[in-house]
Design brief:
With 716 residues, this protein is of the alpha+beta class. 51% of the residues lie in helices and 21% in strands. It contains 22 helices and 22 strands. The strands form five sheets. It has a six-stranded mixed beta sheet with strand order 16-17-15-20-21-22, with helices on both faces. Strands 6-5-9-8-7 form a five-stranded antiparallel beta sheet, sandwiched between helices. Helix 2 (9-65) packs across helix 4 (150-200) and helix 18 packs across helix 19. 24% of the residues are buried. Mean pLDDT is 81; it is low at 673-716.
Length: 716
């Protein structure tokens, strides 16, 4: 019979109902135990949070400064907290600085995780926790402590006992009810149960029992209405959720919701894009904005947020520096608006945070550039004033110079000219010359060879002779500036040239007669000897002095002698050719240098000189006087191989002529008179080259015993 009942539908329904009841009771018990366990876990989280804040506030600074006395005192204080089993403070290297309930040398157990902690675990009834102590983002130590879970386990055990009693009572009671009502109540309820499970899974089109007039039918009818309303509301909620998700999570800004108490209520996932922290990490922070804010901006940020929540006003453009999760600093801009529900209740403040680092850096760079530009402008103004003062000084200096100066551009247009330039070249005032072409005003400057210089090279001086006989020197210097112009410098050297010529005249001329002196004679002699060697052409030297000059000088005085010398020099100077050099060697001795001349040419000149000197008549104190000339001729290189020997040869020939005829004659060296010439040169201390000093005597005195035909016999 029991087997028959066991296979009957009612028994099955009763058994199924009993099983369902047992399952429901078990699930309720499990849910109850889980709720109790969750409550215990939440209490543990709150207790850990409280202890972490207190421990961080009390122990961070002493741990950073290694203040052991303060650490011992604080640890002792925390050791008296309820449920605190042990507490120890360690530095960053793991050394224990202070501890309570902690055995020396004991290793710290691994810290427990709240989300994985289970009160029924077969281990000690202590929750182990570790807290890092940080200062300015740097870890200075850690705190490890343990909390006793004995009370929580006892409470959980009592809850389990009550759940067991309630479950047993429910099973017995439900078994009776199932036994009584199982025949007509189980079947429609099972159908409704299946429909409910289907609706819970989102299947809103499930088949429902036919509604009736009894309670089961009314329940079925209400259940159908509930299903339709639930389906509509779930659709609207899902639609709103999708819309809010699109607005919040896909907005450009990072959105936050701060409740009226100033705590973070909600944040969008854009936080990871802006500051690098996930939504969960932001929610776990006490105040995410203050946590990431720079120390210098934190107080200002806190004041702005408190004011926005209390005043319930909108604000925008608040900027502060924040630390990114990766460690670098960035600029954030915050805009906020108050939030009200549909009934007008104040819900807090909505914050929109955007990364403005790039624009802020650009603004800072722009501000710096503007400040630099202002400083540069001020510096430019200072330099401009200095340049104006220097320009005024230079203009005054150039105007006071005794030299003419003019600046031109690359096309020779005048940029600046000082007053002396206008006066030197007889041009209009300098202001009227600006823009004029210098090559048109003074074409002669550009006809000469180009001698402009570059850099620090000394510019050569060129001469410009004006129509009024003045002589100007000018220099042309290239100016390497943006216009690539030129500087022209002019100087009037007329007086200097006249003075220089006068000095040269005095240095090379005889002061009495005006002919060249002995100094010029030596210079020209060396030059002509070198020229004769270079051109392989002979040159001749004629030296003569006056006979009877001493009688005039002694009888009539030096003034009479000077007059004789002046007249003779003037007469002879007219006789010599332009390329011949006539010099007074001293006293009554004269010389003539003849380039590219032979002995014949020198003899012809000597004959003219002797005739003109002899033809001169002088009268002093009523007495008529006459002088004559004795001339000596030497030819280079026939009679000498250097200048000194040539002078000695001509001088010896002159003394030979003086010895030969006091009335005037000339002598050319001849090789047939070698011995006499050598003795004569030795007596007068001339270079000892007897073989080159060979005089030949000619005379043309105008007397009956003169022999002018000898010239024709010697030179044809």
């Amino acid at each position: 019979m029991w087997l028959t009942r066991a296979h009957s539908l009612r028994f099955r329904l009763i058994g199924l109902g009993l099983l369902i009841n047992l399952l429901i009771v078990g699930m309720i018990s499990l849910v109850t135990l889980d709720a109790v366990h969750e409550v215990a876990r939440n209490d543990l989280v709150k207790q850990l949070g409280t202890l972490d804040r207190q421990a961080s506030a009390a122990l961070t600074r002493p741990a950073a400064e290694h203040d052991l006395n303060t650490l011992y005192w604080q640890v002792e204080h925390f050791s008296h907290y309820p449920d605190v089993v042990y507490l120890a403070v360690r530095d960053r290297d793991g050394r224990v600085l202070a501890g309570g309930g902690w055995a020396p040398g004991k290793l710290a157990p691994e810290p427990d995780r709240v989300d994985r902690f289970w009160l029924f675990a077969p281990r000690d009834q202590v929750f182990h926790h570790r807290l890092e102590l940080q200062v300015g983002g740097q870890t200075v130590g850690e705190v490890v402590y343990g909390l006793s879970m004995a009370d929580a386990r006892d409470a959980l055990s009592r809850a389990m006992g009550w759940c067991a009693l309630v479950g047993l009572f429910s099973v017995v009671t439900l078994f009776g009810l199932q036994w009584l009502l199982g025949a007509w109540l189980m079947r429609p309820l099972r159908r409704l149960g299946r429909a409910a499970r289907a609706i819970a899974d989102g299947q809103y089109d499930v088949t429902m029992p036919e509604p009736g007039h009894d309670e089961i039918g009314q329940l079925t009818d209400h259940f159908q209405h509930m299903r339709d309303a639930l389906r509509q509301q779930i659709g609207e909620i899902q639609s709103q959720k999708n819309m809010l998700h699109a607005i919040a999570d896909y907005a450009y800004a990072w959105e936050l919701w701060i409740n009226p108490a100033g705590k973070l209520f909600w944040t969008s996932t854009a936080s990871e894009r802006v500051i690098g922290y996930t939504r969960e990490e932001c929610m776990a922070m006490p105040s995410v904005l203050e946590t990431i804010a720079h120390d210098e901006d934190r107080a200002r940020l806190r004041h702005a947020l408190d004011h926005a929540i209390e005043a319930r006003t909108s604000g925008q453009g608040f900027e502060f520096r924040a630390c990114h999760q990766r460690g670098h600093w960035l600029w954030l801009t915050v805009n906020w608006h108050p939030i009200y529900n549909t009934l007008g209740g104040y819900q807090g403040c909505r914050l929109s945070v955007m990364d403005s680092s790039e624009s802020k850096h650009n603004q800072l760079a722009l501000d710096k550039a503007f400040a630099d530009l202002q400083a540069l402008q001020q510096l430019s103004e200072v330099h401009l004033r200095q340049a104006e003062r220097e320009r005024a000084r230079l203009k005054a200096l150039f105007s006071a110079l005794s030299i003419g100066m003019v600046f031109t551009d690359r096309t020779h247009r005048i940029i600046y000219a000082n007053p002396m330039f206008s006066r030197l070249l007889s041009l209009p005032a300098p202001d009227a010359l600006l823009g004029e072409d210098l090559s048109q005003l003074t074409p002669a400057l550009f006809v000469m060879p180009e001698h402009s210089v570059h850099g620090e090279e000394e510019a050569p001086r060129n001469e410009l002779k004006l129509d009024d006989k003045r002589v100007l020197t000018f220099q042309h210097i290239d100016v390497h500036d943006d216009e690539h112009g030129s500087l022209w410098i002019f100087e009037d050297v007329t007086a200097e040239r006249a003075t220089a010529e006068q000095l040269i005249f005095l240095a090379e001329r005889d002061t009495l007669t005006g002919v060249y002196n002995r100094r010029r004679f030596d210079t020209e002699l060396e030059r002509m000897v070198k020229r004769a060697d270079r051109r392989e052409q002979p040159m001749a030297l004629v030296i003569f002095d006056l006979n009877d000059f001493k009688i005039i000088n002694d009888s009539h005085g030096h003034a009479a002698g000077d007059q004789v010398l002046i007249d003779i020099a003037r007469t002879v100077n007219k006789t010599v050719r332009q390329n011949e050099v006539f010099c007074r060697l001293g006293g009554d001795e004269f010389a003539v240098l003849m380039p590219e001349a032979s002995a014949y040419d020198a003899s012809m000149l000597s004959r003219r000189i002797e005739q003109q000197v002899t033809a001169l008549d002088f009268e002093f104190d009523g007495v008529k006087r006459r002088v004559s000339a004795s001339l000596g001729i030497a030819v280079y290189p026939s009679h000498a191989n250097d200048a000194q020997t040539l002078v000695a040869a001509a001088d010896a020939a002159m003394y030979q002529a003086k010895k030969q005829d006091k009335r005037g004659c000339w002598v050319v060296f001849d090789s047939s008179m070698k011995l006499d010439a050598s003795q004569l040169l030795h007596t007068h201390d001339y270079p000892n080259e007897p073989q080159r000093l060979e005089p030949t005597v000619f005379a043309d005195t105008g007397h009956d015993d003169a022999q002018p035909s000898m010239i024709d016999e010697l030179f044809g």
